[in-house]
Design brief:
Radius of gyration: 15 Å
Strand content: under 5%
Largest sheet: none
Shape: flat
Number of helices: 1
Length: about 45
C-alpha cells in the first residue's frame, strides 16, 4: 500500500478550516512492521 498523509499540513495552512482525519494503526504483535520514508524533489541547496 502507499499512503500520503498531509492532513496536518492542510490543517495548518488553512488555519483549521480543513481538519486532518484521525487514524490509527492496528499492530499484529506476531509480525514485524517496517516503515520507510521517501523524499522526492528536494532542493539540494537546503541544509
Amino acid at each position: 500500500s502507499f499512503i500520503v498523509n498531509i492532513g496536518d499540513t492542510f490543517q495548518a495552512i488553512t488555519n483549521g478550516i480543513l481538519h486532518s482525519a484521525s487514524h490509527r494503526a492496528v499492530v499484529n504483535s506476531k509480525k514485524d512492521r517496517y516503515s520507510t520514508v521517501y523524499f522526492y524533489g528536494i532542493d539540494n541547496s537546503i541544509t
